[in-house]
Amino acid sequence: MRLTGKTAIVTGGASGFGAGIVRRFLRDGARVMIADIDGDRAAQLAREMGDHAKAQQVDVADAASVLAMTLAAQDHWGHIDILVNNAGVTHIPGALEDISEDDFDRMFHVNMKSVYLTARSVVPHMKENGKGAILNIASTAGVSPRPRLNWYNASKGWMITATKTMAVELAEHGIRVNAINPVAGETPLLKTFMGEDTPEMREKFLSTIPLGRFSQPEDIGNAALFLCSDEASMVTGLAMEVDGGRCI
């Protein structure tokens, strides 16, 4: 019960890695807002998880929607201890010059601008409290890029740098900022990463992971629990690879 008494917002929390984080946080005593663009799926997961889970429909690329999410959390709990920026999208694999401007803009807004918007909304509240933990879900793609995912790779590299600069600036306010770099995982984005979900393509991806398996939501939930708990009180600016050895 390492998060007893703490509150957390998890964006993109209704499925995939986000749902893994939500489940682990709740199991360890936190009260969690499941914030997702799919409000129905968020509500369904909240019902499954019980009284300490709260659903919130949010578009993380929209400033008004992010502010409404933050105010709803403050009104419901009175304080926000943890923010997990997990919402993310990718583009279909392709030559960098062939990715459409619409796909690029969508990825820029969801993967990058969202971190700015949630920080602008939540950080002032954490500064008032003199403490807080922010966790950004980046990717091994930001450290060891895969071909044909150029702009996704770049967005996750941006997120890793944002994590480090946020950590430096916010440390004096008692706010820790870390990131997790998952390898490709069993989530709704897996098919998009691969371009096609076939046994051959899965084997190709798995051949780059020494431990020989994809990340599971539970793997990311376990790492997130540590980084957002008081056990990691001396850890900030870290981009932790949870990748089965892919980046070695």
What is the element layout, followed by pairings?
Elements: E1 7-11, H1 16-27, E2 31-36, H2 39-49, E3 53-57, H3 63-77, E4 82-85, H4 101-129, E5 132-137, H5 150-170, E6 175-182, H6 190-194, H7 199-206, H8 217-228, E7 239-242
Parallel strand pairs: 1-2, 1-4, 2-3, 4-5, 5-6, 6-7
Helix pairs in contact: 1-8, 3-4, 4-5
Task: Tag the structure with descriptive keywords.
248 residues; alpha/beta; Rossmann fold; 8 helices
What does this structure look like?
It is a single chain. The chain has eight helices and seven strands. The protein is of the alpha/beta class and 248 residues long. The protein has a single domain, classed as 3-Layer(aba) Sandwich (Rossmann fold). Strands 3-2-1-4-5-6-7 form a seven-stranded parallel β-sheet, sandwiched between helices. Helix 1 packs across helix 8, helix 3 packs parallel to helix 4 and helix 4 packs parallel to helix 5. The longest helix has 29 residues. The radius of gyration is 17 Å and the shape is globular.
Which percent range describes the beta-strand content?
A: 15-25%
Q: How large is the count of helical segments?
A: 8
Q: Can you identify the CATH superfamily?
A: NAD(P)-binding Rossmann-like Domain
CATH fold type: Rossmann fold
The low-pLDDT segments are none
Tell me the CATH architecture.
3-Layer(aba) Sandwich
Structural class, please? alpha/beta
User: What is the number of E strands?
Assistant: 7
Terminal Cα span: 33 Å
* Averaged pLDDT: 94
Order of helices and strands: EHEHEHEHEHEHHHE
Helical percent range? 40-55%
